[in-house]
C-alpha cells in the first residue's frame, strides 16, 4: 500500500493484539507527512457556534449573524478541516480530476465525525446531473460509502453552476438550486446535512431552508473543510 | 475543436462532447477496457485493479495517467489518422555550424537510420554535442514531409532545446508542449515535448527522438515506454539518445532490436575517468558517531592541497547536516556548503562554487546532470544506496574531467558493500573507454 497523495511507501505498524486478534483495524491511506499538511478544527468556547470560526468576544460571527437575520435561525455547522493549501490540492485532485480513490483519504474521518452526531436522516448535498455524468460520482457520497443515507435533495438542472467557479458576491445572491423529493416524510425529523466545502454557507443554507420549510425539527450540518 | 487537433492524436472527449462534435470521419475510440477484475487503459497501456479504479454505477477510470485528463469509461477518444499536411519552406536547415569529423560520421549514420525509419540508439558520452548531430537527420526528414518530434523526460531540457532548434530550423514553426504550456495545442511538422505529452499522440510521428532516456521519470516508467511506441506510426522510427542507457535498452542492443551509434570520446578526445571503489562498512553508523571514512577525509584534503575543487555526493538529504558537522570539525579552514533540491539558494550556491568561493559542495543526486564545473574531483559516500541508479552513478562520475585543461579527475566511491548499480556503472564506463581507445588509435593512425 502506498500513500494516496504522495505515493511513498506506507509501513503498517501493528501492535501484538492487532497481529493476533481478528479485529478489523483501520488501515492508513496517507503517510504522516501528508496527513500533517491538513489542519483539523478544534472547536471550543471561543469559536462561533454557527460555523466554527474563531471569535473574539462576540456570541456569533458577523456572517452567521447575517444568516440569522435572513432566515430567523442559524445552522450549527461543524467543519472538520481548515480549507488550506493541502485541502485545495486535494479537492482539485478528488473532485476536478476525478480521482475517486482519494475518497479513502477522508472517508474514515468523516464517518467517525458523523457517528458522533445524533440524527434521524443523513442527507448529502447532491451534484447536478451534468456533473454526475462527466465526473461519474458525487464527492460527498464517496465519503459516506457504506453508511445509510437518504438523497432527499435533487438539483434543479443547470441552476447549480459550480460554486467554486463563482466569486463570493455571485455565490451569495445565487438562486435556490435544490428541490425536495416529495416521497420522504421529513416532518419532525433531525437532519444531518453533509457537504464537502463550506465557503460562504450559501449552499448549505439553501438546502437547510428547504428542509426547515418542510417542517424538519432540527437541521445540523457538517463539512469536510471550511 | 478543429480538425487539425485530431491529426495523429487521441483527444479526450466526454459523452456530450463526442455527440456534439461534427468532424467527418472522426474515429471514436474507447478509453478503458475491463479485463476480468483489471482495468486496461488504451492511452497508457497500464492495467490497474478494480478496487482502486472503480466509479459508482459500474464505471471505471485509469488512475495511472489521470494528469492528462481522466481516461474513463464515461469518456472516449477522438482520432484522425496523420495526413502529413505540411507546407515546406524553401530552405529548411538554417544552421551553419561545423561538426568535428567524429561527429560528422555519427551524424551521417543517424541520418541514414532516420531515412530507413529504424529504431536507433545514440550512445554518446556527456558533453559530446548530441543535439547538433541530429540536425542533418531532422532536416532530411522534414524535406520528406515527415512529422517529427523531439521528446525529453525533463521540462528544462525541452525549454533549453526549443530556442536551439528554432534557430537551426528558422523557417519551420515548432510546437513546444509540456504540462505548463499556456498556449493551446497547434498542429506542427516539428514538435518538442515532454515524454508525458507523448501519451496524447497516436501513430503521429514518422520519426521520434527521445533525449536523456535514462533520466527520471522516463526510465522504468512503463506508461511512458508504451506512449513512445504508440506515438510513432507503425512504420515510424525512434532515436534514443543518452550517455547511460539502462538495462532495458542494453538488452535491446544485445537482441539486435536497436541500431547503436557510439560516440565514446569527449570533445577534447580523452577517455572517461574510471570509478575507484573504497570499502567503508558501517559508514552510516560511524557517521552517526561523528566519524567519516579516513580515506575520504584524506582524499578531500589531497584535492584541496592540489588547488582543485570537488563534489561530495551523499544519498539522502537527512544525511547532509551530519556530514557537514563532521567535516566542519575535520577540515577547519576550508570553505564548503550543502546543496539540495529544495534549497532556496541552490542556484546561487552553484554559481558561487563556479566562481571559486567554495572549495567543495556536499550534495544529493540533484547535481548529477546538467551541471559542469571544469576541474573537479568527484566523491560519493554510500554509492551503493538504492537512490543511486547505475545511470545516475555514470552521470555523477561524468562530472569529472570535463575541461581541456584537466581532462582527468579522481572519481572515488565509498560503499558499504558492492552493489549491482555500482558494478554496472563501472562496466559501462570501461565499455565506453574500450571503444574510446580503439577510436583514439584509429584517429592517431590517420
TrEMBL record, chain B:
A Pfam family recorded for this sequence: DEAD
Positions of the Helicase ATP-binding domain: 111-263
UniProt cross-references to SMART domains, sorted A to Z: DEXDc, HELICc
Domain of life (superkingdom): Bacteria
Protein name: ATP-dependent DNA helicase translocase
An MF annotation (GO) of this entry: DNA binding
InterPro entries cross-referenced by the UniProt entry: DEAD/DEAH_box_helicase_dom, Helicase_ATP-bd, Helicase_C-like, P-loop_NTPase
PROSITE patterns: HELICASE_ATP_BIND_1, HELICASE_CTER
Residue span(s) of domain Helicase C-terminal: 299-446
Keyword DNA-binding set for record: yes
Keyword hit for Hydrolase: yes
BP GO terms, sorted: DNA recombination; DNA replication initiation; double-strand break repair
Keywords attached to this entry: ATP-binding, DNA-binding, Helicase, Hydrolase, Nucleotide-binding
